[in-house]
Amino acid sequence: MPTSAPAKTPAPDEPGAMSAHGALDRYFKISERGSTLSREIRGGFATFFAMAYIIVLNPIILGSAKDMYGHQLDNGQLVTATCVTAAFTTLLMGVIGNVPIALAAGLGVNSVVALQLAPRMSWPDAMGMVVLAGLVVMLLVATGLRERVMNAVPFGLRKAISIGIGLFIMLIGLVDSGFVSRIPDAAHTTVPLQLGADGHLNGWPVLVFILGALLTLALITRKVPGAILISIVAMTVLALIINAVATVPSWGLTTPEWPGNPVEAPDFGLIGQVSLFGGFGKVGVLTGVLFVFTVLLSCFFDAMGTIMGVSDEAKLTNAKGEMPGINKVLFVDGLAVAAGGASSSSATTAFVESTAGVGEGARTGFANLVTGALFAVALFLTPVATMVPSQAATPALLAVGFLILSGSVREIDWADPTIAIPAFITMVMMPFTYSITNGIGMGFIAFVLLRLAAGRGREVPAPMYVVSAVFVFYYLMPALGLT
Predict the structure, then answer these.
(1) pTM metric for this prediction
(2) Which has more confidence, 447 or 252?
(3) Which of 159, 160, 307, 429 has the most crowded Cβ, counting Cβ within 10 A?
């Protein structure tokens, strides 16, 4: 009898090769989700580099504001707080939630804390309100209300949220790279954006972005493994060379130059500087509750949109668009909000830049272990971690935005105006208002109103009525004098 051929040994980058990792593979379901260890590692690196700007930007936003006593937070301590919280919550999401969704201080929420809360109370009071918002989020998860809200969102709106996030991160990439810029108010024009800094594409930084975008898209087209990460590294090296040999007036937030002292000791002075209820004594109970509500609403729906968008792109959802085990993910997200307040780094939330890692093939929480570890390393190597210019990292957002759009737009029922119109509103309002929350809120309200107008009110899930009413109240708060 002929002997059977020996079993083929899987290549290191094939899913079957993960069997050698035994318990690790089973716990994170790496092979089950069609991923590999190398893809998860590349994805973790790509996500970190795409969101590493938060290490610099969050301290700038919080450190530039003063509380009611004129106190400012120390920049070095803010860098430490930002890295610690991002590392802890990202690792926690990986181990407990097992999804490739990294977390860090939320943009938008930190502005609310810096510009609305802090000027009317002390910094510990303001951070205490962030902690309270996180505790409320965890309570909503524990009671099942948050999952019910997410599951009540119609399939078409879920896809619209993903598309809106894709458009949003593309705009973020274009703005952060300097490819487009805001026209200053002094110009007295109704046109908000322009090409480059002055209507033209000038300067070395923009060239780095353009070359990075072309390289990323070319590598993706050729299906090269590690396309996004290769582009980020290559463009960082190019930016370092350009900055060394040419005169560049400004790279924006991050200048690509090798630091003279790459190692810097962390300062944990802000950790635990929180007063849970002190703010209510400064502004009153009603205003304090409204402050907590404002932080809560932004965290709740920004994270909801990001989690839905990233999980959909990573193919972690079922036929109904629902993600199994979502409660674990939502609980960690709520814990992250509270942890951000406890560390004085502002509310921590899911980062849409996680799609950069998903674009590299990340499908499990193992990618988060890599991203979280890099944030932990950044505690001591902040000068190195923050030398990657936005022009080198943002092409990833442009590429991933395209991938999200191409995979989701055809799945919306454009023949049903009660879905198509709210979906359209959702996807365009995210980039146009620079807010995931606004896109979700306006889309939800439009969905409810149009279903009622069409005589199909019974088809609207009860949670959608409740959430839409909350959004209406939220938008009316300024007119009612409640902000």
Answers:
(1) 0.74
(2) 447
(3) 160
